[in-house]
Request: fold
Amino acid sequence: MKEKNSVGIVKSKKFICKNPLKLNSGVLLKEFELTYETYGKLNAKRDNAVLVCHALSGNHHLAGRYSSSDKYPGWWDSLIGPNKPLDTNKFFVIGVNNLGGSHGSTGPKSINPKTKKPWGADFPIATVEDWVNSHEALITSLNISRLAGVIGGSLGGMQAIQWAIKFPEKIKNAIVIAAAPNLTAQNIAFNEVARQSIITDPDFNNGNYYGKKIQPRRGLRIARMLGHITYLSDDVMGSKFGRKLRNKNYQYNFNTEFEIESYLNYQGDKFAKEFDANTYIRMTKALDYYDPANGSKKNLSKVFKKIKSKFLVISFTSDWRFSPNRSKEIVKALLDNNIDVKYAEITAASGHDAFLMEEPRYHAILQSYFNKML
Amino acid sequence: MKLNKNNYRYDFPIIANWVNSNSKVLDLGCGDGELLNYLKKERNITGYGIEKNPDNWLKSLKKGINVLQVDIEAGLPEFEDNSFDVVILSKTIQSMHNTEEILDEMLRVGKQVIVTFPNFGYWKDRIQSIQGRMPESEELPYSWFNTPNVHLCTIRDFDNLCKSNKYEIIDRLVLTDNKSVSFLPNLLGALALYNLVNR
Reply:
């Protein structure tokens, strides 16, 4: 049966860049690969391309399924497809797995050409800046001189900002959702707890675990559970789970007692099976390091000086990891430079995760904005 | 929440008259973005609108307005001093809580400030008051129990506020049914329009 408004069955592609890429860390990648997917058609003028940047645990698989028996569609399938807010009848949509990822792009799992073994712990930390530089190489290879837009939520929003800063001539619109111009101390603190839980997992073996029988799942599982708590709001957890019990009465032991425990354990297990520990700690580092204005709000206005793209900035009321006030810092720096910007604060209960949900007002805004873009 | 704006267009040309061509304009409570759109066409302005109502916000976006959803009751911290040529507060002041603060903020951010409001001294309102009930009219289309208007004022009240603060009135126009009123404006005028600068 054909799914309604779906891009259908999709296949990922590979871009091999033979030009060396110098990373922020100083490491030189002599060549690299990016796994990506595209949906819709690039028009004759080649001006209808939208790049979608992924967040911490995302990848290039945005929409559609790999086979009809595929259980889940891509992670932003609610947004992307024919007649959906990001309409693939009009736009050529590109999803790319970032460097250091574990879904096909060059990362810790890839073979280090020097040693002919997986990079593992030796894979360098790639930053938001590095990612955007690598995206640009991909876009150029597709013969696209200017993107109609770059869109991303959270860490993906940071990449959209970086695109506008680094390549002002090559991006027409930046859509920055539930993001911030840098992380707060509290956010870095959460990331450090996540990393420590992974690094101190004995199965992690300092990051060299590929090909081993036992994979480092314990730490990754806890990291995900912690992350998950912070991506939701107190209210939404309360309304979804409250104090609901698994059994009728307290068991007075350490098995799963409350529904919320069961939910978190399930989410942790699922994620630990699918995701790569080395990638996870590197993605959190990219978040921590991103700070185009070096911590100064005034400086952000200066950094935005050369921006030529228009902006849509969206935040969610219950998002306490990337609060509306952080989005307003972005808006303020744009206003200081007379840049075209629209800003909406969506009333939503689901916290940071709201950017992945199908809240009607949120999607209506994106739909209208995309409609005006072409 | 804003007043009914069914017959709002008639004050647009007056506002446009007070706005120089190519000005940078900030419209507080920009509603569906019609005024900014009008000023774009008539005066080639650039600028931003602030709107908190989600439906109006989206209507503004669809018109291509740079619309921002921030709470103006909290002031205008996103905007630098003198960063706009004109700041407009059209038919919104009567529903604001921090009236003086927002006027001060407008005059901090803008070199020129335009304020319009329904005149509560209008004779039709006065008659209803004398008859012992809260006035309702085209400009005030609410019942006492559901009105968003908390700070209604008369032309005399607003003049006094300008006097006691440092607002200089460089222009004032009073309208009833699209016609300018110069005789007994506080009694015969339905809508007041002020063009202010810092003294």
